[in-house]
Amino acid sequence: MTKQEFHNSGVNVDRPYHSTVKGEYKLKDGSIIPVGTKVIVWFDTTNCRSMFVESFYDDRVYKLSISNGYKHLSGFTKPPGMKAMENWSDSGIAKSVLGKKVENDGVDEYNSPSWMMVLGII
Fold first, then answer.
1. Are residues 44 and 92 both part of a single domain?
2. pLDDT of residue 59
3. Residue 65 and residue 96 in one domain
4. What pTM value is reported for the model?
C-alpha cells in the first residue's frame, strides 16, 4: 500500500521503531528493499505476528511477517530456542522481538510483542 493509504488506514502509529535494512529484503511481490535503506517499523497491534515497514526507498508500506525480521532489519533478535522459552514461561519474563524484557504476553515500548506471542506459545 502507499504511505498515504497506510497513514489513513487507522493503524496505531504512535510508537515507530527506526531500523536499517541489513540484508537485501526480497518481497513476495518481487520488490526489493536494498541494504542500507532506512525504514520505520510499526508493530501490528491487532496481529502479533505481523509488522508494517515503511521504506524511504520507495513510496510503499509493506505488511510483513515478524519472524524473519531479524534476517533483514537492524535491532531485531533471532527467535529463541525452546529452552529459553521454557525459562521465560517459568519466570514470567520474556524478551520482545527487539530484545527488551517484557511479560510473556506483553509488548515493549514500540509495541514489539514477546517472542512467545509471535511464535504462538501464548
1. no
2. 77
3. no
4. 0.88
> Exposed (0-12), middle (13-18) or buried (19+): which is 69, by Cβ within 10 Å?
buried
Residue 27: is its pLDDT beyond 90?
no
The neighbouring-strand residues paired with 96 are 114
Q: Which single residue is written with the C-alpha cell 521504506?
A: 55
Q: What percentage of the chain has pLDDT greater than the value 70?
A: 100
51 with 12: CB under 8 angstroms?
A: no
| pLDDT higher than threshold 90 for residue 71 | yes
Q: Could you give the CA distance from residue 101 to residue 98 in angstroms, rounded to a whole number?
A: 9
User: Which residue in 108, 110, 115 sits closest to 19, CA to CA?
Assistant: 110
Give one DSSP letter per residue of 41-101, joined into a string.
Answer: EEE-TT-TTEEEEEESSSSBEEEEESTTHHHHBTTPPPPPPHHHHHHHHHHSEEEBTTS-E
Q: How far apart are CA 97 and CA 115, in angstroms?
A: 6
pLDDT of residue 86: 95
Residue 28 belongs to domain spanning: 3-72
Averaged pLDDT, 83-108 = 96
Tell whether 55 and 109 lie within a shared domain.
no
